């Protein structure tokens, strides 16, 4: 061997840079994004659907008028939602109907009476009707939500 060969020390290549990441990291990032996006999109879809139900409830209630007509419209909306939730429940009367609407007995006895017989009264207390409307709106959405499960 010749001593005149220009030999140099062995140099290691530079360390790989952090950017751009390897393809495996891109796949992991995409999977994480998909796993985060799915529940967010499902929740947004559910909220959009519930807002649409609330708008429909409010629009039909506004068209109903005042007093007993408004209460009759409330009962009709609740019956439609109950029918969507459980077939045949719109045909129930009395206590059986109250069990469908208020299974936890959250309504006061005066509101339960208003629900059953209020549409037949000539005059309804506006404050009591307003309280019942808030409850009915919440229950309407809850019944429709049960349908979509």
Folded structure, characterized:
This protein is mostly helical. It has helices at 23-64, 68-85, 94-101, 109-117, 126-147. The model has no long low-confidence stretch (mean pLDDT 90).
Beginning-to-end CA distance, first to last residue = 84 Å
Largest sheet: none
How many individual β-strands? 0
Query: Cα-atom Rg, whole angstroms?
Result: 32 Å
The chain-level structural class is: mainly alpha
SSE order: HHHHH
Helix content: 55-70%
Which outline best applies? rod-shaped
Beta fraction:
under 5%
Low-confidence stretches: none
Q: Indicate the mean pLDDT.
A: 90
Contiguous helical run count? 5
Organism: Stenotrophomonas lacuserhaii
InterPro entries: DUF4381
Keywords: Membrane, Transmembrane, Transmembrane helix
Transmembrane segments: 24-42
């Amino acid at each position: 061997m010749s001593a005149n060969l220009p030999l140099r020390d062995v140099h290691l290549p530079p360390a790989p840079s952090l950017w751009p990441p390897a393809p495996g990291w891109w796949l992991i990032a995409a999977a994480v994004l998909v796993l985060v996006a799915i529940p967010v999109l499902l929740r947004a879809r559910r909220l959009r659907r519930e807002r649409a139900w609330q708008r429909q409830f409010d629009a039909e209630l506004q068209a109903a008028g005042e007093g007993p007509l408004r209460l009759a419209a409330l009962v009709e909306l609740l019956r439609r939602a109950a029918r969507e939730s459980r077939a045949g429940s719109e045909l129930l009367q009395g206590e059986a109907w109250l069990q469908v609407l208020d299974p936890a007995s959250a309504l006061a006895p005066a509101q339960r009476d208003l629900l059953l017989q209020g549409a037949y009264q000539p005059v309804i207390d506006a404050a009591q009707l307003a309280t019942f409307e808030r409850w009915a709106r919440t229950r309407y959405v809850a019944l429709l939500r049960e349908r979509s499960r």
